[in-house]
Protein 1
Amino acid sequence: MSDAIPLKLFNSLTRQLEPFQPVHPGVPGEPDKPAEARVYTCGPTVYNYPHIGNMRAYVFADVLGRTLSFKGYKLTHVINITDVGHLTDDADAGEDKMEKVAAEKAQSIWDIARHYTEAYWADIKALNIRQPAQWTIATDYIDEMIQFAKAIADKHCYELDSGLYFDVSTVADYGRLARAQTEDGANEIMGRIDEVEGKRNAADFAIWRKTPPGEKRQMEWDSPWGRGAPGWHLECSVMSGAVLGFPFDIHTGGIDHREIHHPNEIAQNQAHCCTNGLDVASNSGANVWMHNNFLIERSGKMSKSSGEFLRLQLLIDKGYHPLAYRLMCLQAHYRSELEFSWEGLQAALVRLKRMVMAVTQLKARHAELVSASIAPSQASVEGEKWTLKQVQGDEFEMFVDLVINFEASVSDDLNTPIAVTLLEDVLAKKKVTPEKKLEVLAAMDAVLGLNLLTLERQDLRIRPKAATITEAEIDARLAERKEARAAKDFARSDALRDELAAAGVEVMDGDSLGWEWKLG
Ligand code: AMP
Ligand code: ZN
């Protein structure tokens, strides 16, 4: 890490690349007072499994967090779990997603929330996304939400039969994040919001939603505005401010949140702090607002309403290691749209395999050299050109450039597509000790999170759920086939190959990656 390479991030609020300037810069020379980076990521609404598009948002936030750690900042990352208040339309219309599913399934909303939160956490783990400092669960913060709403209610809100509404005309620059400031102010983007009678501006939104008379929700609480539930936008303002303190450094989410959810969070944060305009970034509650672009899939398999939608588990069931999907995400810049295809995922898996195999070889060579240094007579490894003397005499100039370029690429608004190629360049580099390479790879992988130093080749070979043959059976047939070939019994060898093919297993003689078989 070098001070000479500043971290630059694209701030959606200004639509510009900006050098990262932490709110808490620390005290130079005092290691116990490091510069801090405080980051809040909008988490999932746990009414269903996340799709892989959702998970792209968390891979992006994870790479951001890892980069901040790599650059030496003390990271505090918070991700929330929305278990109440998110309506079926991000704007102000529709039903509560959680209540709707609970009613459809005739189940407890709390059970549903727990089930899908755990499923989401399993995906987080499978994608090697680091645990944040804190997961904030929305329903744990109801009191704080009521206090926040009370603090802004007099000056910024008004009550209607259906709830407490935020008046967006009471803060400066409403909608700037969405670039919605046309002559009509914010009303343009809010045109699709269902009209609620009595609303002062089309863009006004409920921060507390009253339970309609005669109805009962599974989740409802008493408040000064009657029994009901908080609005989704209020939740994130409250949880981010409560845990990280306003202003904090970076707020992230998918690009859809740039249009409604985050402008509304910003308006609430302004109401809470100052009402002033957004030319001073910190007035919005966070200095930098970052958004990942969408993962798209043309046939609609990303939609959770389609039967077999693209969950991470579906990828695993089809035999793809989840880190192949992570690599697929890293191969695109987070601000670019990324199109999902099975071919693309397969290519990412092959690329990951190559990296893992190269690292495995490197580890083996390193182990040989270490043992050689203990027993000098074995310093020259048979069949290899490597000798201890040779590697110790190497110069690292070209290598150092790669390391600097890697840092420059991730510091350039998280340019992971370039960073991945630089990691491969390190793997391919000649005349550098395995020890040095492994050290550099570990530092690079700490940012990319591909688990390259611990993954084994066999970890990447996942048996698809639909496969009709076990790995033990495959291994047994292959061993038999080897014997047949050794005995020049080619008829038997071919018969075994056909038998395996009928079971969906393709035998791969002479595969450059060293795979003996793959499932077709
Ligand atoms: P939700 O659970 O709907 O609140 O979404 C969780 C996160 O996923 C949010 O940050 C969304 O902006 C993000 N997101 C939703 N769909 C996609 C997609 N297709 N690609 C990338 N991110 C998405
Ligand atoms: Zn949020």
Note: The chain has three domains: 37-292, 322-458, 467-519.
Protein 2
Amino acid sequence: MRVVDTLEASGYEAWVVGGWVRDALMGCRGHDIDVTTSAPWQETARVLRAAGIEVHETGAQHGTVTAVVDGLPVETTTYRVEGAYSDRRHPDEVRFVTDVREDLARRDLTVNAMAYHPGRGLLDPFGGQDDIACGVIRAVGEPARRFEEDALRVLRAVRFACRLGFVIEPATQEALTAAAPGLADIASERIGQEIDGILASGRMAWALRHEFDVLAAALPELAPLRGFDQRSPYHAYDVLEHTARVCAGVEAVSGGCAARPLRWAALLHDVAKPSAFSMDDGGRGHFFGHPEEGARVAGRVMGRLAVERQTVREAQALVRLHDLPIKADVRSTRKMLAKLEDACPGRGAALAHMLIGLKRADALGKAPNCLAYAVDLDAHEAALRTELERGKTCAVSDLKVGGADVIRERCIEPGPGVGLILRSLLAAVINDELPNDREALLAELRYDD
Ligand code: ATP
Ligand code: MG
């Protein structure tokens, strides 16, 4: 509260606002603090610096400076309202005002439109506290106008409903469904942050079932999943309900804390099913090649949404391998590890656990005759643990011989041939045809010569 105290000691008014207030009322610790003040940003910067607080001018045109107190950033913004949004993305102008209530009125949701001051207490003109008590997401002001001004609010409302476990008030719901097509005009990296936020809440299944119009507007590649009849004895649900079950399933098998790549993979694992569909003479549906195509689509979608590259690569590997046949034996386990290690060096073991989690959730989301496979996977998980304890051999770098040995023993020049020979040795080790033992591998190199 040093920022608030310092500004007030200089004759300005200042409040803590937004997410920190909401989270504090719900008994959680906010991860960042926003302050709103009557001081113009130049004054904010001057007063805080005079008190020895570090200040960065991060968004002067919006009236925002970032103070750093005890190593934590405090975004400090002058009371403001936004003008018209002719492009549904950016307000045409920002106007500074003198009354904090006007500033609160421009905020998106009642639970986000409260201000707190240590001396004056809570300022809650839109009933945010009641909505928290009742678990309700409600737009501030007239919902249709608020969502039309800025379509990102549509996705934010869904993200907060997921994160807080709240329901959306009916008039707000009606307005946000109507405004959802406006998401097409929103910058894709901002959409990516919100989708990531929904996944991080662990409630993507709820969003798929209850807010699919919004998700399909944000991520058009999902649209064909709704109502897609799989015509398969293995599937009791359309691809959308199956996907929702898999999203819920990965949370269930990881105690509600599924890893990020696993969450993305659950959402996108069957995204290419509609385009890969074919029907045989018996009227049964097939989806040949959908994991590979799904991995391509996942790469494209996640790249567009600016998800960072490592998560994209890992999610793609999981999507590509989600139908990989595996057995609960050493050879099959090593092959699975090698494929994952190949796709994402250094991540084979972690991804193998995720892949088994994805397969388990996938089985739970199919028809009842597939449920037993989810239990069978216990044996695969056990085989994986045993293999990992025994010491891994799934990357060329784990071999007990290296490129220099190949060059010396085979008398060849450095170049791509060295890698090829190492990979053939790795394949032999994975297939149990050779032990990963230095002498044995050197003997093999000499023998072939
Ligand atoms: P989080 O915990 O996700 O950071 P937050 O509530 O702090 O939640 P921010 O995106 O950091 O959310 O925004 C801070 C505050 O700014 C919000 O609480 C809300 O009052 C306001 N806000 C943010 N984005 C919008 C928007 N698009 N339209 C209206 N108000 C917004
Ligand atoms: Mg915040």
Note: Residues 371-390 form the longest helix (20 residues).
